[in-house]
Amino acid sequence: MTSAPSNLSPQQQALLDQWLPSATVEKNYSWGLVATTVLEIAHAGSRFIVKAGGADDHHIQRELHAHLNWLDSWTSRGRAPTLVHGSADAKLLLTRYLPGELALGSEHAEEPSTYRQAGELLALLHAQTVVTDDDYERRENEKSLAWLSRPHRIAATTVERLQAEIAAWPTPPATLVPTHGDWQPRNWLVHDDVVSVIDFGRAAMRPPFTDFARLAVQDFRRDSKLERAFLDGYGTDPRDTAAWYRNRVREAIGTAAWAYRVGDEPFEAQGHRMIAEALSSRPQ
């Protein structure tokens, strides 16, 4: 492959040369905050997207699992990129290019019709399979406590309150479905007013309401019409009061601590706001 970035490993470069000999790099969409390379490449008149993980990456394996198990309801409608090749060992994924512009930062991010379609697409994903997990809540609590034990800028008094709350939470069985894990306009493409979905690096089995978390603290907070349109598309509202509160707190902790770790100060500030707002809405 010509003009490939130097941060591709020799194994990744060799696989790409095997899959698409003499392909050329057209654009680099890499985010920069994490060690994931995202490229648009051309080969024999067709366009593809390459995602290559760094040495410590665990997102490519999740993304490959999602493509192999959960995305047919979208790809069959042309609403998600189709997998061409993948290697969990090489942390490398190749999909067909999906046309469109990101909803984030465009006029589509303010259109209720975008959110209605996103709700409909999410309902298709969540409806595929349902399992009960007796240990999910305990595992998630442990993850949040682990974030609090690492470097961050959450106030010490707030940390003490969060630790005490989490220690007192019940751990009931949880109903899990396939989830995207980062459901928000930055992962929605719009082409001819039709919404499609990208980026499955956080896909996993979780409670359905977890896919409402990013929207609730950003887009729904900004405009209630967007929330109404999304719920109209999705068909119901799965946000049970107690479980939703626990998830809000966990999301807030993870946002503030992760953003601090990668040096994303605006996102870190959002995490601190999320913590304050979640704690102020604690169910009685």
Automatic annotation (TrEMBL):
What SUPFAM superfamilies does the annotation carry? Protein kinase-like (PK-like) (SSF56112)
Domain Aminoglycoside phosphotransferase, by residue range, is 59-243
**InterPro entries in the record, alphabetically?**
Aminoglycoside_PTrfase, Kinase-like_dom_sf
- Name residues in a coiled coil: none
Please give the superkingdom of this protein's source.
Bacteria
Record-given protein name: Phosphotransferase
The uppermost taxa in this organism's lineage are:
Bacteria, Bacillati, Actinomycetota, Actinomycetes, Micromonosporales
